[in-house]
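Input (structure):
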C-alpha cells in the first residue's frame, strides 16, 4: 500500500455544498442529496429536494510542487492540481424554479465565495432551465437544472527519498577500467 494521500477530496466539496444549498433553499439537509443512487426511490416532490451530480473534472493549470523547506531532511512532496469541477444541480418540486434562481444568483456572488471557502470556489454557473421529468406514475414533476462550475485544488502528498549528503572519491579510470 502506498503512502500517497489527497486532500481535499471531491466528497469534501459536497460536504460544503450540501449545507450551503440547504441553508439558502430552506430544505432539510437530508433533502440535498448527492446524485440519485441506484435502486433508491427519489425523495417526494413535496416539499421537494435538490440533487448534486458531478459532470466532469478538468485540469486548470500545471502542478505546483512543494517541499517542506523547514525540514532539513524532507520526506515528502506535496503536488497541487487546480481542478474545475462541474456539478449539475437539479431542483425538484413546487419551489424548484425559485431555488434555482436563488442558487444561480448567490453562486455568482461573493456570498457563494465566502460560504464555500476554503474548500472550493464558484467560478460561474449557467442559467437554470426547466427540464421535463415524468415520474413512475406518469406525472410531470417540476425540475429546474443548472451546472455550477467550481474550482478546488486537491493536494497529493507522496513520500520521497532525498539525498542530503554526497561522498565523492577519485579513481584512476585507466586502472579501474582498462581499455
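Output (sequence):
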Amino acid at each position: 500500500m502506498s503512502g500517497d494521500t489527497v486532500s481535499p477530496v471531491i466528497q469534501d466539496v459536497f460536504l460544503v455544498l450540501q449545507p450551503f444549498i440547504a441553508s439558502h433553499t430552506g430544505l432539510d439537509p437530508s433533502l440535498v442529496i448527492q446524485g440519485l443512487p441506484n435502486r433508491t426511490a427519489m425523495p417526494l416532490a413535496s416539499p421537494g429536494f435538490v440533487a448534486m451530480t458531478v459532470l466532469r473534472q478538468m485540469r486548470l493549470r500545471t502542478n505546483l510542487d512543494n517541499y517542506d523547506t523547514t525540514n532539513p531532511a524532507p520526506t515528502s512532496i506535496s503536488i497541487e492540481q487546480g481542478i474545475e469541477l462541474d456539478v449539475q444541480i437539479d431542483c425538484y418540486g413546487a419551489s424548484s424554479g425559485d431555488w434555482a434562481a436563488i442558487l444561480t444568483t448567490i453562486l455568482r456572488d461573493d456570498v457563494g465565495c465566502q460560504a464555500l471557502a476554503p474548500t472550493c470556489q464558484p467560478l460561474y454557473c449557467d442559467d437554470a432551465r426547466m427540464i421535463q421529468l415524468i415520474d413512475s406514475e406518469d406525472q410531470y414533476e417540476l425540475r429546474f437544472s443548472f451546472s455550477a462550475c467550481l474550482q478546488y485544488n486537491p493536494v497529493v502528498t507522496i513520500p520521497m527519498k532525498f539525498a542530503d549528503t554526497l561522498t565523492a572519491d577519485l579513481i584512476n579510470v585507466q586502472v579501474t577500467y582498462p581499455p
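Notes: The chain has four helices and ten strands. The radius of gyration is 25 Å.
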